[in-house]
Amino acid sequence: MHTVVRVEAGDANLAVQVAGTGAPLLLVHGFPLDRSMWRNQLEGIGGWTCIAPDLRGAGESTVPRDGYSMARYADDLVLVLDAMGAGTAVCCGLSMGGYILFELLRRHPTRVRALILSDTKAEPDTPEGKRGRDDLAQVARREGSGAVADRLLPKLVGRSTAAREPAIVAAVRDMAVRSPVDGVVGALGAMRDRPDSTPLLGQIRVPSLVLVGAEDEITPPAIGRGMADRISGARYLEVAGAGHMAPLERPGVVTPAISEFLGGLG
Ligand code: MLT
Asked: Which residues pair with 52 in a beta bridge?
């Protein structure tokens, strides 16, 4: 059964989808997306309480005009876990969701039981990347989220999915188009200013799974493999035929892989 609960988080009110029963599994979406990107995992992972929040400024959560940062997003996740009565959770994040989990590990390490890092990276933005964030924020302010969606969509979805799965392409586009402009601009600033998480990788002591779409152009497999190599004991999975949205593009591979990893946690 799926429920949507509302969680107060200071100047925001978060929509959080909850499905299943069992130990907590927190699913953190990427940019410019919302919790619906986890639809297959919410349906398909049994024996766990799947907790999928819309981040502040995304989906059905409210949209503060400013004050976005990785620290704020991470603190929001703690409020979500508190509201669910979850002391710790297996934490799974895609792309920006992964950036937020690195911040959660720095700020609240005791809340993370295990990590699943999907199509993400520990490196900060390059100077060129930071300029790109500011340019995209201007596009969002000037032309709206549709224009942002048009620019990002070709890189969000892998070429195999783009060729064969129009419904998935449309679902990703819809998420991006309905992203509120203030939330988009806030997330771009938070990503631009995020710290370098590479020094953290060697300190991670929880069981970890790194997965990446073989056709991911934003965080390509070489980046995912390099990250897995630096996390002690991490497992690595490359998902054939998937791009940056591997959990949505190839749920038939990703959901069982997550379930198997969860099953091994004991
Ligand atoms: C995401 O999917 O969250 C974004 O592509 C991350 C990024 O732009 O760095």
From this structure: 17
User: Which amino acid does the sequence have at 250?
Assistant: R
> CA–CA separation, 235 vs 23, rounded Å?
21
Dmax over Cα atoms in the chain, in whole Å? Answer: 51
CB of 95 closer than 6 A to ligand 1?
Answer: yes
Calpha distance 53→4 (Å, rounded): 9
- Cβ of 218 closer than 6 Å to ligand 1, yes or no, is yes
Looking at the CA of residue 96, tell me the nearest atom of ligand 1.
Answer: 3
| Ligand 1 nearest atom to the CA of residue 155, by list position | 5
Q: Give CA–CA dist 235/27, Å, rounded.
A: 18
Look at ligand 1, atom 4, and give the residue with the nearest C-alpha: 31
Helices in the chain by DSSP H: which ranges? 39-44, 70-83, 96-107, 127-143, 145-156, 159-164, 166-177, 181-192, 198-201, 221-230, 246-249, 251-263
80-128 per-position pLDDT tens digit: 999 999 999 999 999 999 999 999 999 999 999 999 999 999 999 999 9
d(CA 37, CA 27) in angstroms, rounded, equals 10
Cβ pair 235, 210 in contact under 8 A: yes
> 99 alpha carbon to ligand 1 midpoint, in Å?
9
